[in-house]
Structures are given as C-alpha cells and as structure tokens.
Amino acid sequence: MGGLKPQETCVDFPAKSGATSAIALYAAQQGETDPAVKPLRGFGGGSVLEIIARYRGDTWRAVYTVRYPEAIYVLQAFQKKSKSGIATPRKDVALIHQRLGEAERLHRERQN
Hints:
Number of helices: 3
Order of helices and strands: HHEEEEH
Structural class: alpha+beta
Strand order of the largest sheet: 1-2-3-4
Radius of gyration: 13 Å
Shape: globular
Helix content: 25-40%
Largest sheet: 4 strands, antiparallel
Distance between the termini: 18 Å
Mean pLDDT: 79
C-alpha cells in the first residue's frame, strides 16, 4: 500500500510536530483520540481523521483511518503549504481517497 507506516510518518516532520503526530497515532492504537485530532471533512463521518501539528508558524498534517478494527492505516502526511486558507490541498485529498481505497482492498484481502 502507498500509505505510510506510523514509524515513517513523522520522519520528515520537525521534532515537536512529529512527536505530536506520533503521540496521536499511539493514542489511536489504544482506542483513544488525542486533542490534536479531528475528522477530515469530505470523508463521511469520523473514520478518516487528521492530526494537525503546528510548529514555528508552519502546519503539519497526518491523515489516517480507523475504519478497520485490526489496523490503523496512515493515508498521508504532509506540510500544509496552501495559501488559500485551511482547506486540505486537492492533490492531497485525491491521494487520501486513493490510499483509502487501497486500505479497503487490503482489509478485504485479510478477511479472506
């Protein structure tokens, strides 16, 4: 799958924002929701979540899904650079949709 593994998600993030993302992913693995997490709009409910970490005026995001009880799939991690407000850039939304489809396929394969 094209998604990132939790230990790879924060590698290029600055230390503080990477730690925020790692802590939030760890909380998700424990069935908890970190305060830095919110549902990502446009994905139908609360099963696709976004971690927002701010550091020195920059915003870093990691998007993951908790749709499947056996795994948390990290779908995308990136630095928010858009000058057009708080919206997630279209290319990242498209990649998240693609990787969510891959996660669904992997889930189905594991069920068989």
